[in-house]
Amino acid sequence: MKQLIECVPNFSEGRDPAVLKQITDVIEAVEGVTLLDVDPGKATNRTVVTFVGEPAAVIEAAFQGIKKACEVIDMSKHTGEHPRMGATDVCPLIPIAHISMEETAEWARRLGERIGRELDLPIYLYEAAASRPERKNLAVIRAGEYEGLPEKLAQPDWKPDFGPARFNAKSGATVIGARDFLIAYNVNLNTTSVRRANSVAFDVREKGRVLNDPATGKPMKDAAGEPLREPGLLQGVKAIGWFIEEYGIAQISMNITDIGATPLHRAFEACCVSADKRGMRVTGSELVGLVPLKVMLEAGKYFLKKQQRSVGVSDAELIKIAVKSMGLDELAPFDPQQKIIEYNLDKGNAAANKALIKKNLRAFADETASESPAPGGGSVSAYVGALGVSLATMVANLSSHKRGWDERWEEFSDAAERGQFLKDALLRSVDEDTDAFNEIMTAFGLPNGTPEEKAARKAAVQVATKIAIEVPLKVMRLSLDSLPLIRQMVETGNPNSVTDAGVGALCARAAVYGAFLNVKVNASGLDDKTYAAQVVAEAEKMAAQADAEERAIIEIVQHRI
């Protein structure tokens, strides 16, 4: 399986598109790298670039981007709101798939060594790649910024990890490392005061604020001479206040380094509470760079629960609620296909874009009706099952806000959320079934001349056939699991929609039986007769259960209408 890492270099240029294009062009020119996002800021005069790929390709693209930045950016003329110390200020690597943090840190060290050697640039390592504990924190390394580099580089304690301990007036220095996924997030205030924005930042950031002596107004210190602090509200959050001239507002600029401890919506809410306490109002917010899908889904569910509404809605609806609740579209349109990392990756994925579930209803029907043997009965069974549980989910959502049933919203929300889970799993099976069929066809197409080739072909066919059995078995289990939910909606859901739930039961039973036929026909071609007998027995039992459950549900429906 492919190892994937993400690279998010921050370049000290946010105002000249021509300069930025020169940098992104050399990044995109590296084979195996996908450029996901380019997010420039005029006031910060800084651009966050995001790209992803296998490690060697990403390292090459990062090197070429940093090299080009050294050529086209002159730090001696740079000004901007954001702290910075180099043409490429910071270049983090983030493990995305099938790679450990330790491996990612080693790639960061390789990148740092090459840049220091070939570009003659001072390089510091941070976070998981740090060479010593005191250099893990980016803010510590960046203290003094570009202007303080000549003095810093002259100190033995600040000798770079790679490259010369010599001030590079044009390019400054660069910090390279490996870290977990970080969300760069700005919250907008209805004020122009940086001091007041900072007061909110100090309330929410993990390190809080330095305590001052009420009598003297000077910072208080502990026995070791360190400043005493009042901790902030949010773990794993760094924050400062600044004024953004292009928008004419002050913002709280945050880096959320631990999205498990502090979800995006909690950071937003904490800023709202602090701002309100200080006579201000949060008007919206913005994401810099990309965000994982789960962050947006969690936020959508959080705000729906605050409204006592069902969270069992589609991902698209959850994202819409999150965007509107946090005002993520206040300063610029929020495009989920661009800003959410999984969706952005799919844009360049040819296989994902050809998926059956990406087709509209007519296109899916036309594809099924074509002379191609796939999609066939297995994919259609999975889709019918998804439609069945979708009807039950609809009834649950209608019931959750039925007039007079307000106290039952959580009951129906839980049911709808379960329905969404089953629906999504069945939709995935639509393409999984076709993929499994194609694997069998590929196996049959293998060379079949020599005894070794015959044996390899036969083994490949057997493996592919087992996969082609497991997919419809899963469809049977999922569709059978949907029947109790459908029955719950028939018995206790909105009575005006009882027939909708009844149709759902008919679909679920059809899905079980359709998938059952696929299990039987594929099992007949297995050499492993013991396994074949076991799966057919399990399938027969599930088919009988679906029969009984569907009959019971339809009887209830007939009685209620």
Give the SSE layout.
Layout lengths: L3 E4 L2 E2 L5 H12 L4 E9 L4 E8 L1 H18 L15 E10 L3 H19 L3 E5 L10 H5 L6 H5 L20 E5 L4 E7 L4 H11 L4 E2 L18 E2 L6 E8 L4 E8 L7 H14 L4 E7 L4 H14 L8 H12 L9 H4 L1 H7 L2 H4 L7 H9 L7 H24 L8 H36 L6 H42 L5 H26 L5 H32 L1
Helix pairs in contact: 1-2, 2-3, 6-7, 8-9, 14-15, 14-16, 14-17, 15-16, 16-17, 16-18, 17-18
How would you summarize what this structure contains?
The chain is of the alpha+beta class. Helix content is 52%, strand content 14%. The chain has helices at 17-28, 55-72, 101-119, 138-142, 149-153, 194-204, 264-277, 293-306, 315-326, 336-339, 341-347, 350-353, 361-369, 377-400, 409-444, 451-492, 498-523, 529-560, and strands at residues 4-7, 10-11, 33-41, 46-53, 88-97, 123-127, 174-178, 183-189, 209-210, 229-230, 237-244, 249-256, 282-288.
